[in-house]
Fold these 2 entries.
Entry 1:
Amino acid sequence: MEKQHFGIVGLGVMGENLALNIESHGFSVVGYDTDAKKVENFKNRTNGKKVVAAKSVADFLQTLDVPRRILMMVPAGKAVDAVIGDLRPHLTSGDVLIDGGNTFFADTDRRLKALEGSGILYVGTGVSGGEEGALRGPSIMPGGNPDAWPVVKPILQSIAARTEDGWPCCEWVGNGGAGHFVKMVHNGIEYADMQMICEAHFLMERVLGATPEEESAIFAEWNKGELNSYLIEITADILKKKDPDTGKPLVHVILDTAEQKGTGKWTSTVALDLGIPAQTIADAVFARMLSALKKERVAASAVLKGPAVKFTGDKKEFLEMIRKALFCSKICSYAQGFQLLRAANVEYKWNLNFGTISRTQPWPTCCSIHTSQMSSLHINRHGEKL
């Protein structure tokens, strides 16, 4: 049986796309999932490529070249521990096991300690860029056992996104849970970035009376300058979209509730623990929590009426003030994130290289935005102002 270079456990969209990305860079892949339907879908999607779909853990492990390089793309928490429990008895010294999910960094530390003395090289890595990034080039933040890095470096750097000067958006972050910590802060900054974009939208709509189509043109123009980022780009795209059923702007129809995966909350909690004032990130988390209080907000809107706003100033000047405020707020958010990284570096003795971290990551520019965030917590499904 021909051996495969790389294994992936967890064949959701992220796992599938990463497999295709890895294969397109000259490395053969074997994938496995406990869900037989996902295995079959994976097999169909990768037909004709140097990719194998395994039907069992034993089949998966036997297909891998030694030392085995295994990436787990499963939900953070118990699922990761379950996969480790299934694989560990069959792994040998020198095998590399990578957790690519949004795992809390302390859990990565715990798993590293549990594997000490086993010879298994454990890595906790952030993977940023969403489904599209997984397929075409994500930002990757590996940390954990440093002995693992030479084994996986050629593959991970080959599939990563590239900076304009060709530098791979993947470099070793540090020992322990450093990789997942950097990804956590990355996501926290993203939370703040999205909330600030929402507030810019709110000011344009409520103070200047701009339509979503007009806002789209404004954001598109901003994306040509110092605010250039993927988030600004897709904000402009979202504001142009119409609801196919009503013909109304999509942003006036979608439900104004934003979900969260926990990383923004973790960032805020850790900032409190380390005594770092990351209020921009924390306020963005609170805004998402506020959006979940749908019934309370609807009831309050029937009783509490805000003042009517009639703008009489220079709209062009005010728009420039919004743009500058957004840019300044982004700088504050990034500064707070790096302050948190600096404090964690001292606390956990990771020896982080901040220059490398900033250079190898597009930061929130490579992340996706929920269209529900664009409601800025003020518009419900029926277009009523809350």
Note: Residues 242 and 249 are 4 Å apart (CA to CA).
Entry 2:
Amino acid sequence: MISAPITLYGVSLASRLMLGTSQYPSPAILAAAVRASGAEIVTVSLRRESARLKEGQDFWRLIRDLGARVLPNTAGCHSVKEAVTTAKMAREVFGTPWVKLEVIGEADTLQPDVFGLVEAARILSDDGFEVFPYTTEDLVVAERLLAAGCKVLMPWGAPIGSGRGLNNVFGLRALRAHFPDIPLIVDAGLGVPSHAAAAMELGLDGVLINTAVAKAGDPVVMARAFGQAVEAGRAAFLAGPMPPRDMAAPSTPVLGRAILS
């Protein structure tokens, strides 16, 4: 790995890519994609683990065999009570205090309900959870989430599954500037590896990808591409990108050129 490890709630990780585990064509392709990506964290829905006919048990066995750290999520929850209850059940099932907290407030965009999110984050943090909140890029909401006990923020890039990339670069830059020491993981809306590289070039700390990999023509190749893009973007940020200019600047010196008459 080019960059230094990232530390999340005291856990050091070499990879800055997280991978979702839903919508893959088969368990074998999911496993191959996780390995190809180099991801050390995978998100898992409690609903998947609780599926009928032992499907959930087989899925959980596959995840454990990958050796990745599990980040349970509260996907599909639309209220504080539902999210908190789901998180507590996930802690029992997966044996981890980590939870990716989602409280959805709007059906068409799946935008987080930031008011419910802050409330649920406070309840779970007080109960010993280590919360990864799926949030917007709003600075005030970020402050409230940190005050509620969160030590990681997961701002969206665009609506979940949209593949639109980074809809609000200014907002993400502002988050990075205001919270230089808080891990920021872009979650949702990234569609191609260049989106992930762009997020990393802004100085953000990692990305979470699901649909863009799972729905690709070749999920394994796409997973590998995202892993490479995250590394490239992080390396570019650390190298110090040149600032953009409004006017051209010659790359070849004018001084000393031949004069023809």
Note: The two ends are 54 Å apart (CA to CA).
